[in-house]
Sequence to fold (445 residues):
Amino acid sequence: MSASLQGETTELLQQLIRNGCVNDGTPDSGNERRNADTLADLLTGAGLEVQRFTPQGERTSIVARIEGWDPTAPKVCLMGHTDVVPFNASGWREDPLGGELIDGEVWGRGAIDMLNLTASMAVAVRHLARSGFRPRGDLIYFGVADEEAMGTWGAKWMCEHHWDAIACDYVLTELGGWSVQGPAGHKVGISVGEKGLAWRKLRIKGTPGHGSMPLGADNALIKAAEVIRRIAAYRPRARIDSVWRAQVEAARLPDDLKAALLDPERIFAALEQLPPAAAKHLHACCHTTFSPNVAHGGVKANVIPDLVEVDVDIRTVPGTTAEDVDNHLREALGDALFAEVEVISMVDHEATLSPLDTPMWDALSRQLKVAYPAAEFLPQLLVGGTDARFFRDRGVVGYGTGLFVPNVTMEEFGSRFHGHNERIDVTSLGLCANLWTGVVKDLLG
Fold:
């Protein structure tokens, strides 16, 4: 491992954290221009030209490029987002925006989501540029804003308005790099796809009346409660595919439990035997999920409500269409109740999935073995969302990866992700910087 890349990545990550680009979802938050300036200074110092794109206020994204010499060679984009989610400082042991280096770990919001990767990618690109590396195909660095709020002012906007600036054949971004130790040996998680978004607003109507006379009332709140109950109880059929099978086989579980997790008729009984945190995650990996998370309705304690709206977070497995989502809701509610509900689409983005039989997969696998000779990648479907989906929509192969020390398991990774006391060790920062450098040389050298 290059000690210089590790040190440079550590220093850059500290600065990115301290810039405090906190995105609360409102159009004027984020202030990613601060991180854009830091990254631009780093890259222009290596002689690279940096383009800036600012669709709104301070929501700046940057693009830098090392041009390739072979127009038939693939183009590779290293994409890292520059915004971070909000935090409650009272729950932290250290200053969330301090970026302090403590006992070999950098602490702060964004340390693992994903300023660590954003920093290591930038350091890798600068290192390649300084060394005079000439890739066969273009190498693109994309420091993008607004990932934490659906990419409205970031990757989504760039793909719609400036695709030429970021067009590529392969994109590498979050999430991955954690270790899974099981009967099949050392596996390292890599995201090859992610579930779709199909958020729905359910509008339930009733008839207003006086709260003192509730008998037989057409109370929208009572109907909404039944809607919520039925959605919570709904169990759609599991999707058992090759990615799910690989995940189950790699798990440290008894053979009979693994067999049950691969059987759509027995999977729920199997999930009930697992610790709650594991069951939640594994259930989401192979099911379309429905989570009623927001309800609005009623005007006063003595008025029977005539309208209640319920927002449902629906995450779909690959192959699920908008029509399938409506059919799921009809099945969950029953025909009679479904007929009384107006279903309004809030977000629709089908699940995305990249193939594994690609030159990029092979290059990543070879570079993984440089760090961990006995390890193999474990392909996984993300239950959340990343900016990779906008690229996959355009036919780009997208993988979410990274490389951490073996004691950063998926459980450990998940506990820090959007949580208190987010931090990353400096050894992992060096592993990531070397991974990007090695992959680029392998594929484009």
Notes: The first helix runs from residue 3 to 18.
